[in-house]
Design goal:
- The protein is α/β, with parallel strands linked by helices and 281 residues long.
- The chain has two domains: 171 residues, Rossmann fold, CATH 3.40.50.620; 91 residues, Pantoate--beta-alanine Ligase, Chain: A,domain 2.
- 40% of the residues lie in helices and 20% in strands.
- The chain is built from nine helices and nine strands.
- A six-stranded parallel sheet has the order 1-4-3-2-5-6, sandwiched between helices. Strands 7-8-9 form a three-stranded antiparallel sheet.
- Strand 2, helix 2 and strand 3 form a beta-alpha-beta unit.
- The longest helix has 22 residues.
- The chain is globular, with a radius of gyration of 19 Å.
- The mean pLDDT is 98.
- The structure holds pantoate.
- Pantoate binds next to strand 2 and helix 6.
Protein backbone atom coordinates (compact mmCIF):
# COMPACT_ATOMS: atom_id res chain seq x y z
CA UNK A 1 0.00 0.00 0.00
CA UNK A 2 1.32 3.44 -0.95
CA UNK A 3 1.24 6.30 1.58
CA UNK A 4 0.59 9.56 -0.27
CA UNK A 5 0.80 12.96 1.43
CA UNK A 6 0.58 15.49 -1.39
CA UNK A 7 -1.63 16.08 -4.42
CA UNK A 8 1.33 15.51 -6.73
CA UNK A 9 2.15 12.14 -5.10
CA UNK A 10 -1.52 11.22 -5.47
CA UNK A 11 -1.58 12.23 -9.14
CA UNK A 12 1.56 10.23 -9.88
CA UNK A 13 0.01 7.15 -8.23
CA UNK A 14 -3.32 7.61 -10.04
CA UNK A 15 -1.67 7.91 -13.47
CA UNK A 16 -0.42 4.33 -13.10
CA UNK A 17 -3.56 3.07 -11.34
CA UNK A 18 -5.96 4.32 -14.02
CA UNK A 19 -4.07 2.33 -16.64
CA UNK A 20 -5.01 -0.82 -14.67
CA UNK A 21 -8.75 -0.06 -14.54
CA UNK A 22 -11.40 1.67 -12.43
CA UNK A 23 -10.56 3.58 -9.23
CA UNK A 24 -12.71 3.39 -6.09
CA UNK A 25 -12.45 6.01 -3.35
CA UNK A 26 -13.38 5.92 0.34
CA UNK A 27 -13.00 9.32 2.05
CA UNK A 28 -12.76 9.09 5.86
CA UNK A 29 -11.78 11.09 8.92
CA UNK A 30 -9.84 8.11 10.29
CA UNK A 31 -10.18 6.15 13.53
CA UNK A 32 -11.37 3.42 11.21
CA UNK A 33 -13.81 0.68 12.22
CA UNK A 34 -15.56 -2.24 10.53
CA UNK A 35 -18.00 0.19 8.88
CA UNK A 36 -15.12 1.83 7.01
CA UNK A 37 -13.61 -1.57 6.23
CA UNK A 38 -16.90 -2.65 4.63
CA UNK A 39 -16.64 0.39 2.31
CA UNK A 40 -13.06 -0.51 1.38
CA UNK A 41 -14.06 -4.12 0.63
CA UNK A 42 -16.94 -2.92 -1.55
CA UNK A 43 -14.52 -0.54 -3.28
CA UNK A 44 -12.14 -3.41 -3.99
CA UNK A 45 -15.04 -5.48 -5.33
CA UNK A 46 -16.07 -2.72 -7.74
CA UNK A 47 -12.70 -1.41 -8.96
CA UNK A 48 -9.15 -2.48 -9.70
CA UNK A 49 -7.74 0.13 -7.31
CA UNK A 50 -9.06 1.39 -3.98
CA UNK A 51 -7.85 4.70 -2.55
CA UNK A 52 -8.72 5.74 1.03
CA UNK A 53 -8.21 9.22 2.46
CA UNK A 54 -7.84 10.09 6.14
CA UNK A 55 -8.36 13.78 6.80
CA UNK A 56 -10.05 15.29 9.86
CA UNK A 57 -11.73 18.14 8.04
CA UNK A 58 -11.76 21.25 10.26
CA UNK A 59 -14.45 23.07 8.27
CA UNK A 60 -17.20 20.57 9.14
CA UNK A 61 -16.83 21.10 12.90
CA UNK A 62 -18.67 23.92 14.66
CA UNK A 63 -16.80 26.16 17.15
CA UNK A 64 -18.13 24.21 20.15
CA UNK A 65 -17.70 20.75 18.58
CA UNK A 66 -15.09 18.02 19.03
CA UNK A 67 -12.41 18.87 16.39
CA UNK A 68 -9.53 19.00 18.90
CA UNK A 69 -10.54 15.79 20.69
CA UNK A 70 -11.69 13.88 17.57
CA UNK A 71 -10.10 10.42 17.97
CA UNK A 72 -7.00 9.76 15.87
CA UNK A 73 -4.81 6.63 15.46
CA UNK A 74 -2.90 6.66 12.21
CA UNK A 75 -0.86 3.54 13.01
CA UNK A 76 -4.00 1.47 13.53
CA UNK A 77 -5.72 3.09 10.50
CA UNK A 78 -2.76 2.27 8.25
CA UNK A 79 -2.84 -1.37 9.40
CA UNK A 80 -6.63 -1.57 8.84
CA UNK A 81 -6.30 -0.23 5.28
CA UNK A 82 -3.41 -2.58 4.53
CA UNK A 83 -5.38 -5.57 5.87
CA UNK A 84 -8.40 -4.61 3.73
CA UNK A 85 -6.24 -4.63 0.58
CA UNK A 86 -6.35 -0.85 0.02
CA UNK A 87 -3.89 0.25 -2.67
CA UNK A 88 -3.17 3.80 -1.52
CA UNK A 89 -3.79 5.83 1.61
CA UNK A 90 -3.96 9.59 1.04
CA UNK A 91 -3.02 11.63 4.12
CA UNK A 92 -3.16 15.30 3.13
CA UNK A 93 -2.15 18.12 5.48
CA UNK A 94 -4.80 20.86 5.87
CA UNK A 95 -2.77 23.22 3.60
CA UNK A 96 -3.00 20.69 0.78
CA UNK A 97 -6.83 20.88 0.70
CA UNK A 98 -7.22 24.48 1.92
CA UNK A 99 -4.43 26.49 0.25
CA UNK A 100 -3.61 29.87 1.81
CA UNK A 101 -6.33 32.35 0.83
CA UNK A 102 -8.92 29.59 0.18
CA UNK A 103 -12.33 31.25 -0.15
CA UNK A 104 -14.42 28.88 -2.26
CA UNK A 105 -17.22 26.81 -0.75
CA UNK A 106 -19.69 24.21 -1.93
CA UNK A 107 -23.20 24.63 -0.61
CA UNK A 108 -25.91 22.04 -1.25
CA UNK A 109 -28.94 24.13 -0.48
CA UNK A 110 -31.92 21.79 -0.08
CA UNK A 111 -30.98 18.39 1.35
CA UNK A 112 -28.59 20.17 3.76
CA UNK A 113 -31.57 21.79 5.46
CA UNK A 114 -33.15 20.36 8.60
CA UNK A 115 -31.91 17.46 10.74
CA UNK A 116 -28.10 17.64 11.22
CA UNK A 117 -27.94 20.63 8.86
CA UNK A 118 -30.14 22.65 11.19
CA UNK A 119 -28.50 21.49 14.44
CA UNK A 120 -24.93 21.84 13.14
CA UNK A 121 -24.88 25.07 11.11
CA UNK A 122 -22.16 25.03 8.45
CA UNK A 123 -21.51 21.30 8.89
CA UNK A 124 -22.67 20.21 5.43
CA UNK A 125 -21.00 23.18 3.78
CA UNK A 126 -17.73 21.84 5.24
CA UNK A 127 -18.52 18.26 4.20
CA UNK A 128 -19.59 19.22 0.66
CA UNK A 129 -16.54 21.44 0.20
CA UNK A 130 -13.99 18.87 1.32
CA UNK A 131 -15.67 16.02 -0.58
CA UNK A 132 -15.73 18.15 -3.76
CA UNK A 133 -12.00 18.91 -3.30
CA UNK A 134 -11.22 15.22 -2.73
CA UNK A 135 -13.34 14.21 -5.75
CA UNK A 136 -11.49 16.80 -7.86
CA UNK A 137 -8.12 15.41 -6.73
CA UNK A 138 -8.87 11.68 -6.93
CA UNK A 139 -11.41 11.74 -9.82
CA UNK A 140 -12.61 8.24 -8.88
CA UNK A 141 -15.00 6.12 -10.92
CA UNK A 142 -16.85 5.09 -7.78
CA UNK A 143 -17.00 6.57 -4.25
CA UNK A 144 -18.39 4.78 -1.22
CA UNK A 145 -20.13 6.21 1.85
CA UNK A 146 -21.93 4.69 4.84
CA UNK A 147 -25.70 4.93 5.16
CA UNK A 148 -25.36 5.72 8.86
CA UNK A 149 -24.71 9.32 7.76
CA UNK A 150 -27.89 9.28 5.66
CA UNK A 151 -28.24 13.03 5.21
CA UNK A 152 -24.54 13.33 4.32
CA UNK A 153 -25.04 10.65 1.66
CA UNK A 154 -27.89 12.65 0.09
CA UNK A 155 -25.76 15.84 0.20
CA UNK A 156 -22.93 14.03 -1.60
CA UNK A 157 -25.30 12.54 -4.19
CA UNK A 158 -26.60 16.07 -4.89
CA UNK A 159 -23.14 17.65 -5.21
CA UNK A 160 -21.97 14.83 -7.47
CA UNK A 161 -24.99 15.41 -9.73
CA UNK A 162 -24.95 19.22 -9.64
CA UNK A 163 -21.21 19.70 -10.10
CA UNK A 164 -21.12 17.08 -12.88
CA UNK A 165 -18.47 14.85 -11.30
CA UNK A 166 -20.06 11.80 -12.94
CA UNK A 167 -18.91 9.52 -10.12
CA UNK A 168 -20.93 6.47 -9.12
CA UNK A 169 -21.81 7.30 -5.49
CA UNK A 170 -22.57 4.10 -3.58
CA UNK A 171 -24.27 4.03 -0.17
CA UNK A 172 -23.37 0.97 1.93
CA UNK A 173 -25.45 -0.43 4.80
CA UNK A 174 -24.68 0.65 8.36
CA UNK A 175 -22.43 -1.86 10.11
CA UNK A 176 -23.54 -2.63 13.66
CA UNK A 177 -21.93 -4.19 16.71
CA UNK A 178 -23.38 -7.58 17.70
CA UNK A 179 -25.75 -5.81 20.11
CA UNK A 180 -27.06 -3.43 17.41
CA UNK A 181 -25.07 -0.23 18.15
CA UNK A 182 -24.21 1.48 14.86
CA UNK A 183 -20.43 1.62 14.43
CA UNK A 184 -19.05 5.15 14.70
CA UNK A 185 -15.66 6.64 15.52
CA UNK A 186 -17.47 8.70 18.18
CA UNK A 187 -18.45 5.51 20.08
CA UNK A 188 -14.90 5.76 21.48
CA UNK A 189 -16.10 8.67 23.66
CA UNK A 190 -18.73 6.55 25.46
CA UNK A 191 -18.19 5.17 28.95
CA UNK A 192 -19.27 1.53 29.46
CA UNK A 193 -22.49 2.75 31.05
CA UNK A 194 -23.23 5.24 28.24
CA UNK A 195 -22.51 2.58 25.63
CA UNK A 196 -25.12 0.33 27.23
CA UNK A 197 -27.68 3.17 27.24
CA UNK A 198 -26.85 4.00 23.60
CA UNK A 199 -28.45 0.70 22.53
CA UNK A 200 -31.82 2.40 23.07
CA UNK A 201 -31.37 4.24 19.76
CA UNK A 202 -31.38 1.09 17.64
CA UNK A 203 -34.04 -0.45 19.90
CA UNK A 204 -36.27 2.57 19.21
CA UNK A 205 -35.71 2.28 15.45
CA UNK A 206 -36.65 -1.42 15.65
CA UNK A 207 -39.85 -0.59 17.57
CA UNK A 208 -40.84 1.94 14.91
CA UNK A 209 -40.14 -0.55 12.11
CA UNK A 210 -42.38 -3.09 13.88
CA UNK A 211 -45.14 -0.48 14.26
CA UNK A 212 -44.96 0.33 10.54
CA UNK A 213 -45.08 -3.39 9.66
CA UNK A 214 -48.21 -3.58 11.84
CA UNK A 215 -49.87 -0.78 9.83
CA UNK A 216 -48.98 2.40 11.78
CA UNK A 217 -48.11 5.06 9.18
CA UNK A 218 -48.40 8.16 11.35
CA UNK A 219 -45.00 9.86 11.80
CA UNK A 220 -45.82 11.13 15.30
CA UNK A 221 -46.56 7.57 16.45
CA UNK A 222 -43.41 6.18 14.78
CA UNK A 223 -41.23 8.93 16.29
CA UNK A 224 -43.00 8.38 19.63
CA UNK A 225 -41.72 4.78 19.73
CA UNK A 226 -38.14 6.06 19.39
CA UNK A 227 -38.65 8.89 21.91
CA UNK A 228 -39.95 6.44 24.49
CA UNK A 229 -36.71 4.42 24.24
CA UNK A 230 -34.54 7.56 24.36
CA UNK A 231 -36.36 8.81 27.45
CA UNK A 232 -36.04 5.44 29.22
CA UNK A 233 -32.28 5.45 28.57
CA UNK A 234 -31.86 9.11 29.53
CA UNK A 235 -30.64 10.08 26.06
CA UNK A 236 -31.22 13.76 25.28
CA UNK A 237 -33.02 13.99 21.93
CA UNK A 238 -31.50 16.25 19.30
CA UNK A 239 -34.08 15.18 16.74
CA UNK A 240 -36.32 12.28 15.83
CA UNK A 241 -37.95 12.70 12.44
CA UNK A 242 -39.58 10.82 9.59
CA UNK A 243 -38.48 12.21 6.22
CA UNK A 244 -38.57 11.30 2.57
CA UNK A 245 -35.48 9.15 2.00
CA UNK A 246 -34.20 11.14 -0.98
CA UNK A 247 -35.34 14.76 -0.46
CA UNK A 248 -35.29 14.61 3.37
CA UNK A 249 -38.46 16.70 3.50
CA UNK A 250 -40.33 15.91 6.72
CA UNK A 251 -43.32 13.57 6.41
CA UNK A 252 -46.39 13.33 8.62
CA UNK A 253 -47.38 9.94 7.15
CA UNK A 254 -45.51 7.13 5.42
CA UNK A 255 -47.56 6.60 2.26
CA UNK A 256 -47.92 3.18 0.63
CA UNK A 257 -44.89 2.52 -1.59
CA UNK A 258 -42.95 5.50 -0.18
CA UNK A 259 -39.23 5.14 0.61
CA UNK A 260 -39.11 7.04 3.90
CA UNK A 261 -36.41 7.24 6.53
CA UNK A 262 -36.58 7.54 10.29
CA UNK A 263 -33.63 9.63 11.49
CA UNK A 264 -32.42 10.07 15.06
CA UNK A 265 -29.77 12.14 16.82
CA UNK A 266 -29.25 12.17 20.57
CA UNK A 267 -26.73 13.11 23.22
CA UNK A 268 -25.21 10.86 25.87
CA UNK A 269 -23.36 13.39 27.97
CA UNK A 270 -21.31 15.41 25.45
CA UNK A 271 -21.34 12.63 22.85
CA UNK A 272 -23.76 13.05 19.98
CA UNK A 273 -24.78 9.87 18.15
CA UNK A 274 -26.88 9.54 15.00
CA UNK A 275 -28.63 6.57 13.42
CA UNK A 276 -31.46 5.91 10.97
CA UNK A 277 -33.61 3.19 9.47
CA UNK A 278 -35.49 2.67 6.23
CA UNK A 279 -39.27 2.90 6.50
CA UNK A 280 -40.61 1.14 3.44
CA UNK A 281 -44.24 2.27 3.03
O1 LIG B 1 -18.16 10.80 6.94
C1 LIG B 1 -17.02 11.29 7.13
O2 LIG B 1 -16.11 10.65 7.68
C2 LIG B 1 -16.74 12.71 6.66
O3 LIG B 1 -17.84 13.53 6.83
C3 LIG B 1 -16.20 12.78 5.22
C4 LIG B 1 -17.22 12.30 4.21
C5 LIG B 1 -14.93 11.96 5.09
C6 LIG B 1 -15.86 14.24 4.87
O4 LIG B 1 -14.92 14.77 5.74
Amino acid sequence: MELLRTASELHRFLAGARARGAVAFVPTMGYLHEGHVSLMREGKRRAATCVVSVFVNPTQFGPSEDLSRYPRDLVRDTAACEAAGVDALFLPEPGELYPPGAQSWVEVTEVSQGLCGERRPGHFRGVATVVAKLFALVRPDVALFGEKDWQQLQVIRALNRDLLFGIEVVGCPTVREADGLAMSSRNAYLSAEERQRALAINRGLGEAERLLAGGTRDATALCGAVREQLRAADIREDYVEVADGATLRPLSQVAAGQQARLLVAGFLGRTRLIDNAALQG
